[in-house]
Every structure is written in C-alpha cells, then in structure tokens.
C-alpha cells in the first residue's frame, strides 16, 4: 500500500514540476519573472544577512588592533609595548598616527613584521598613496619617520584607512601626553558594551525595514500568475486529483522558479558583492573588505533552502482562501466592514495621540511605564492603521479615478488596480508604515541633535578651525597663536578663555582660526598646530554633537530608500504579471488601434497610484505623529524634510523605472499571433 | 508560407465568410486584411489606400476609426466593466468620458445586454461577453467588422443570437463584415463565401 501511495505523491510532484516548466511564451515569461524575482530576493537576503557578519569581522579586527591595554604605565611590564596616539586629518579624512615604543619581544600590532625603530614608519596602503600624491607634502610633517613598510590587511579595519605606526623618536616622546601599555595584540581583551535603547530601536527598525518588505516581495513573486495556476489546479481536480494533490502541485510549481532564483543569487553573489559593499559602507559610515561580506556557508545554505520553503508556505497559505473544485476556482474575500477597520484604527490612533497631548500634564505625573504605555497604544494603532488604510485608499482612489476617467490610460490603470489590488496594496502598505515610522524617528533624532548643539558651535563658519592650546604652557601661548597667524591663508584668530562648546579652559586656551577656505590652508595650519593639538574643522566640531543623530537619520533614510526599492520591485513584478495574464486582451486592444502609449500610461498609473497614495498618507501622518509626540513633551519638532524629499524623489524616479522596465513586456503583447482562434 | 495567390475584394456593406479547415490560413488572412500582420508579398487596399504604405500610427488610427474586431474569446479587458470595454475605442479616439460611456450604454441596450453594463467580463456568460464584444466592434461606426470565429465558444442558440445581432447591427450601420469561421450555419448568413485550403483560395461562390 505504502509504495503505491509514495509513487502517487511522487507522480503528483512530478506533474507540478513539469507544469512549472512547460507552456508557451506567457508561461515561460511567468517562469522567468518568478525566477528573476526570487533571484533578486535571494541576493538581497544574502547580502542583508552578511551585514552582521561583516560588522563582527570589523569589530574583531578593531579589538585585535586595540589589544590588551593598560591605561596606566606599569614599570614591571618591560615587555609591553608603549603606545600613544597623535590624531590628525587630511582633507577631511581622519589620519591615525600611533607612536610605538618597545623592546625586543614586545607585542607587535597586526599587519607589521616588527615595531618601527625611532625614525621609522609603517603606513597603510591608502596613506602611502596619500603621501605620494601631489598634495602629500602637506601631510608629510605629521607622519614622522622614514617609511620602511606597508601595513598588511590584518592590521587594517578597512581598505582605505589612513593609519601609521611610527617609532618613538625623541621629539615624539616629548609629545607624549597619554600612553597605554599593550601586553598583547589579541581580541580577547575587548568586551562589547550592551546596546543602548536608541541603538536597539534602530536595530529593530533596520531588521523590520529589511524583513517586512522582503517578505512581501517574496509573497508577490510567489503569487505571480496565481489565477492561471489556480485554474490549472481546478483542471487537475477535474481529472480526479484530490485537494491534497492540488496543493502538492501548487507547491511544486512555485518550487522550481524559487530554487532557480536562489541558485542564481548565490552563484552570482561574488558579482553583486561589490554593489552591496558600497551600499553597506555608505549605510554604516565606514568601509569593509569585500571578504567581510562573504556569508558563512551555513547561512548561505539556510537562505538557499529557506526562500524556496517560504515560497511553498506562501503558495499553500494562499490556497487557504481559495476553493479549488473540479468546476473551477472560488475566492473568499474579506468583507467591506473588515477592510474599514484599518481607517478606523488610524483615526482612533490619531485621536488617542491628540488626547494624550491634551491631557499631557496629568499623564506626565503617572509612573514612567504607564505613561509610555498610554502613549504607545495609540502610536501603534496609528502605524498599523496607516499600513492597513493604504490598500483601502488605493482601491478607493482607483475606483474614483476610473469612474471619471476620460483617458484610456488612466481608465485601464485604475481599473486594473481596483480589480487586483492585493499585491500593489501590500507593497504600498509596507512602504507607508515603514516610511511613516522612519519620519517619526528621523524627527526625533534630528530634533535631539539640533537641541544639543551649543550656540558657539552652531555659530562657527564653514572655513573655521578650532584649536585648543591647553597643552601649551600659558606663558608660551602668545607665541603659539602668533605662529598660527603666520600661516598663509589664515585671515585671523579669535582667542578666548571659553571653548565654542561653552567650557572654561584658562587664559588664551582656545582659538577659532578663520581661514580663506582653501583646503590646503587647513592642512598648513595643522602642520603647525597638530604637534600640540589637532585643529578640528567646524564640521568635525559639529560632528561631536550631531554625529550620532545624523548617523541615525542617515541610517533611517537608507532604510526608507531600501523599502522604496523593494516596493518598486514588487510593483514591477505585479505589472509584468498583469501584462502576461492579459496577453490576449491586450493584443485585442492593439488590434482595435490602441497606440502603445495607452498601455504604457496604464502601467505608469499602476505604479504611481500605490506609491503616491502610500507616501501621500505616510508623510502627513508621520509628521503629525512626530509633531504630537514633541508637543506632548513641550518641545519644538524639527521635521526631516531632507530625508522626506529624498524618499519622495526616489519613489518618483523608481515609478518611472518600473514603467520603463515593464514596457518591453507590454510591447510583446502587440504580437498578433495570440489573437488567432486556433 | 501561410498564404499564397490570395486575391479578393470586399464591397461596402457586404458580408464575406472565409471558410476552411484548421491551419488553412483563415485567421492569418483576416489579420493581414486588417493591417495587423504585414504580408511578405502583395498589398491590401482600403478605399484607395495601400495599408502596407501606411506607417504604424496611421494603421492604428485606421483600425480605430474604420475597423471593428470580434474575436473568439478573451478579447475584453478583464478589469474593465462592459460599458468601459465598449467605450474604449471612443476614448482612444479622444471622445470625452461621459459621451463615450453614453454611446456605449446605448449600444449595449440595442444589443440587449444593458443589464451587464456595469459588470466585468468575469461576471458575464460567454454569450453576454460576445455581445459586448460585438458592441465594442460597432461603437466606432466602422466600415468593416473583422470577426474571427465570433461564435466559436458559444452554444448554437447563443451563436445564432450573436450572429443575428452582429449582422443586423452591421447592416443598420452599412458596415461590411469579414467573417472567419468553420461553422457552415454561421457562414450561411454571409452574402458570399470563400473556401481557403492550404493558404490558397479553393472556392468562391460570389
């Protein structure tokens, strides 16, 4: 009995696999679209998963380079390496110069064969290039010693790092103000600090921004040509297939393109890695080696197996709302009332936030956890309502547009969205929710950064440099400032007893150097000042205040862009699927004399309406929520118009890209062969 | 070669049926005559204009204004309602939305399918879909209606009704019909019949 049953299931599986690979132009097109979709999803998942690995490898190198260091010099450790730091920068890029002093047998940093002797220097390849460049002479005085070697990859955090290890010459010993003793260059001495709540929120958002749209994209790809495939399942039922066999066929049909897609993604990951490297470097704010992004084999295997499995789960889950009978296919749809829940949740959420703002005084007196919960519930309701309302609004807007359309393009596009809103609606929903959340968080980080900056720092001009002369004995400070004023290109110095950040530091302790704005002038000033203290540009001084906030905003902007890109990919898949599904009807449209621009226009509407609706709702809602949260705290909100503009511009550009990429498929429908009756 | 030595003319208001077995080139001939396919050799003339000399945009315009089409099935856009499917050729020709819908409703009424005007093709029967397709073919007051197996997917009762409507409405508008069919009953309604075999005219009763 068992072998017969097994044979029957294997036979069913074979039918499913066969069905996914046979057919005409439309079927081959569907297979190609699905495989391409899974390949894109696979590549994105593989590279997204490699990010934690890359960060861990970077941290490991940083920890090893730091080594086990004692902050206080212990004379009983003669074999330890003494290390002190001379920071500087070169045309806006930080340059880390480490002075090393030791004896034979002392610990040697990774990447160099031995400690540099006094008067010697090991430099990174990027620093060697910088020194050899035409403007390298402006940096040479700050990298003391004769270059005797290049630091190897094990000693570098990133390929373009500017770093030097120099031997402890007598003049450098005079510049030693703080030193540490390194007993071993090993990562074991480092301990990772627990993540701050803000970092945890950002990390959660990053995970959500990656997983949610990717999951929806995989859902969209798994549902390509679902109507045609479900009709095939009905035919299988008609010839005696059971419900379970129909499910096996459905699973097998999606398995073929999913496996093909992820195999393409994993086999081309070496090619796509350089693109991922640039994206990740821009996102994190520092570079990586390409090998940092190589995913460990178990994770690669998990992705290659996991995505097809997810596709099968989606295919089977979708069938739960479909009744496949020998007579045909019937779909169970949600009632109008069920769909109206989301606008209600959005409205109630906003009203809840307004109520919290109105009653903020008594609310603030409540224990911290309770007031946060009272604020969190309407906030969550607003964001969930925002996500759920977008598909509802897309459908309403499409119906409204179609009812009044006088152009065939808008009529076709709007009716298409109205008739099959699920995929576009899901993509737009994730875009709206994540964009809305990103706007709230960007507003929080941007406003917090703006508030923290002292007026003296905010008032610095772009071409100003700030130098602290604390290390210069008070009697020699006048001479120090005079030597700085003699540098060509310096227009004047404001010397003060108070730093721009408002801290008192003694007589003539700080100078704001006004330069002519020539980058070479800045470097010449540093050749005078950096022997004592690093001359920071206005941008570097501000970075101490806005650094984490701007990094967070940048991270959120990238997250928003990623969501827009994945949304566009979902809309492209849906558009191509729609064209393939209506091949014959579109051929008839061409036959009755419709110009190509009619179908092109309808494709534009199909992409623009969901994107536009999602952002039209997310931007005011996100801004309103941010404004209410800040009003609750009696603080002024600074809305992130820059990132909002970037997201909106990207959405507009990608809408055009989606239309352009779906046009070749639309053009192929003009083939009159699909009109023939036989 | 799908067609060879085919020469025929269609008069104003005439109904011409092209008969033949599967693969004889009937549909190919219809698509060539409608300016959708381009013959490798020979020419198609419509009112002193050679279709092959016209650019693609002009041929599209000609099909919009002078020709109507009825195919076997699957020709209606599934997301549009019946009235919108019928109004589509007018909208393509720049007629205002309200006027186009009004004309479409009047024609659907004339063909007895006004009750499905706001339904989509998926919600209609095959007979209703074909009547809507006939309405779409006639809404632009064409000079020629090209019909490729217009009743191929219908039962005999519905087929008869659809043909009656097509022929009656075309006659009322002075439109000629070029009808591709392998159904003798359908062909019997034509003024003239041509038999096509292996891409050549094997018989002409005109």
Please describe the biggest sheet of chain B, giving its number of strands, its sense, and whether it closes into a barrel. 6 strands, mixed
Number of domains of chain A: 4
Q: Percentage of helical residues of chain A?
A: 55-70%
Distance between the termini of chain A: 44 Å
CATH homologous superfamily identity of chain B: P-loop containing nucleotide triphosphate hydrolases
- Counting DSSP H or I runs of 4 or more residues, the number of helices of chain A is 22
| DSSP helix fraction of chain B | 25-40%
**Biggest sheet strand line-up of chain A:** 1-7-2-3-6-4-5
Question: What's the count of strands of chain A?
Answer: 13
**Structural class by sheet pairing and helices of chain A:** alpha+beta
Radius of gyration of chain A over alpha carbons? Answer: 32 Å
Tally of discrete structural domains of chain B: 1
Assembly classification = heterodimer
The CATH topology of chain B is Rossmann fold
Instruction: Name the average pLDDT of chain A.
Output: 84
Mind telling me which CATH architecture of chain B this is?
A: 3-Layer(aba) Sandwich
């Amino acid at each position: 009995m068992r072998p017969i049953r097994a044979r029957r299931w294997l036979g069913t599986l074979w039918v499913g696999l066969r069905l996914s690979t046979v057919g005409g132009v439309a079927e081959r097109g569907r297979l190609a679209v699905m495989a391409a979709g899974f390949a894109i999803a696979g590549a994105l998942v593989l590279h997204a998963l490699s990010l934690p690995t890359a960060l861990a490898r970077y941290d490991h190198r940083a920890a090893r380079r730091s080594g086990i260091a004692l902050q206080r010099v212990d004379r009983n450790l003669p074999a330890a390496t003494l290390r002190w730091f001379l920071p500087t920068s070169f045309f806006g890029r930080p340059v880390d110069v480490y002075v090393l002093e030791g004896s034979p047998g002392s610990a040697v940093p990774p990447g160099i064969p031995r400690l540099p002797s006094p008067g010697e220097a090991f430099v990174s390849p990027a620093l060697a290039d910088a020194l050899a460049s035409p403007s390298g002479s402006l940096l040479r005085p700050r990298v003391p010693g004769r270059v005797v070697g290049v630091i190897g990859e094990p000693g570098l955090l990133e390929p373009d790092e500017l770093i030097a290890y120099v031997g402890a010459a007598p003049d450098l010993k005079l510049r030693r103000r703080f030193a540490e003793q390194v007993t071993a260059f090993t990562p074991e001495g480092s301990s990772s600090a627990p993540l701050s709540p803000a970092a945890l929120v950002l990390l959660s958002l990053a995970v959500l921004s990656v997983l949610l749209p990717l999951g929806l994209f995989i859902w969209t790809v798994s549902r390509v040509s679902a109507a045609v495939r479900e009709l095939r399942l009905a035919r299988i039922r008609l010839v005696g297939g059971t419900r379970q066999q129909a499910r096996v066929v459905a699973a097998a049909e999606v398995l073929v393109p999913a496996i093909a897609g992820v195999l393409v993604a994993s086999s081309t990951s070496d090619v796509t890695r350089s693109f991922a490297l640039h994206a990740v470097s821009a996102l994190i704010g520092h570079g990586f080696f390409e090998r940092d992004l190589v995913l460990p084999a178990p994770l690669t295997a998990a992705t290659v197996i996991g995505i097809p499995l997810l596709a099968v789960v989606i295919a089977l889950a979708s069938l739960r709302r479909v009744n496949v009978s020998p007579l045909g296919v019937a779909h169970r749809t949600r009632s109008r009332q069920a769909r109206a829940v989301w606008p209600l949740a959005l409205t109630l959420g906003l009203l809840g936030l307004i109520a919290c703002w109105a009653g903020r005084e008594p609310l603030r007196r409540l224990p911290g956890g309770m007031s946060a919960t009272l604020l969190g519930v309407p906030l969550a309701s607003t964001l969930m309502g925002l996500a759920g309302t977008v598909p509802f609004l897309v459908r309403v807007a499409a119906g409204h547009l179609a009812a009044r359309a006088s152009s065939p393009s808008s009529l076709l596009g709007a009716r298409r969205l109205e008739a099959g809103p699920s995929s576009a609606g899901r993509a737009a929903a994730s875009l709206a929710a994540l964009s809305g959340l990103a706007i709230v968080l960007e507003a929080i980080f941007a406003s917090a950064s703006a508030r923290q900056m002292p007026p003296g720092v905010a008032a610095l001009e772009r071409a100003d440099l700030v130098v602290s002369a604390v290390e210069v004995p008070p009697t020699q400070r006048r001479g120090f400032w005079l030597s700085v004023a003699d540098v060509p290109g310096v227009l004047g110095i404001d010397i003060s007893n108070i730093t721009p950040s408002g801290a008192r530091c003694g007589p003539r302790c700080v100078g704001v150097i006004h330069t002519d704005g020539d980058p070479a002038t800045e470097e010449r000033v540093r050749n005078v000042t950096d022997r004592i203290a690093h001359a920071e540009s206005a941008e570097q001084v501000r970075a101490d205040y806005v650094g984490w906030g701007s990094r967070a905003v940048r991270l959120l902007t990238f997250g928003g862009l990623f969501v827009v890109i994945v949304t566009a990919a979902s809309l492209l898949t849906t558009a191509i699927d729609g064209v393939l599904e209506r091949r014959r009807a579109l051929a008839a449209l061409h036959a009755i004399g419709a110009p190509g621009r009619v179908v092109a226009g309808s494709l534009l509407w199909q992409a623009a309406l969901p994107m536009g609706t999602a952002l039209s709702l997310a931007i005011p809602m996100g801004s309103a929520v941010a404004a209410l949260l800040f009003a609750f705290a009696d603080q002024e909100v600074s809305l992130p118009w820059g990132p909002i503009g970037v997201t909106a511009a990207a959405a507009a550009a990608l809408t055009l890209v989606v239309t352009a990429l779906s046009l070749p498929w639309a053009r192929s429908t003009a083939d009159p062969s699909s009109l023939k009756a036989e | 070669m799908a067609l060879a030595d085919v020469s025929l003319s269609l008069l104003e208001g005439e109904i011409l049926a092209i008969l033949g077995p599967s693969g004889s080139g009937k549909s190919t001939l219809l698509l060539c005559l409608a300016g959708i396919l381009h013959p490798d050799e020979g020419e198609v003339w419509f009112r002193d204009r050679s279709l092959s000399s016209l650019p693609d945009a002009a041929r599209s315009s000609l099909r919009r204004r002078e020709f109507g089409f009825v195919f076997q099935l699957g020709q209606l856009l599934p997301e549009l309602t019946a009235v919108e499917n019928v109004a589509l050729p007018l909208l393509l020709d720049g007629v205002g939305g309200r006027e186009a819908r009004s004309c479409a409703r009047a024609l659907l009424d004339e063909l007895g399918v006004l009750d499905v005007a706001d339904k989509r093709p998926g919600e209609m029967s095959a007979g209703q879909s074909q009547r809507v397709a006939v309405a779409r073919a006639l809404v632009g007051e064409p000079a020629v209606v090209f019909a490729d197996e217009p009743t191929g997917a219908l039962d005999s009762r519905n087929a008869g009704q659809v043909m009656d409507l097509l022929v009656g409405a075309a006659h009322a508008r002075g439109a000629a019909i070029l009808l591709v069919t392998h159904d003798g009953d359908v062909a019997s309604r034509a003024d003239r019949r041509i038999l096509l075999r292996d891409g050549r005219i094997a018989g002409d009763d005109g």
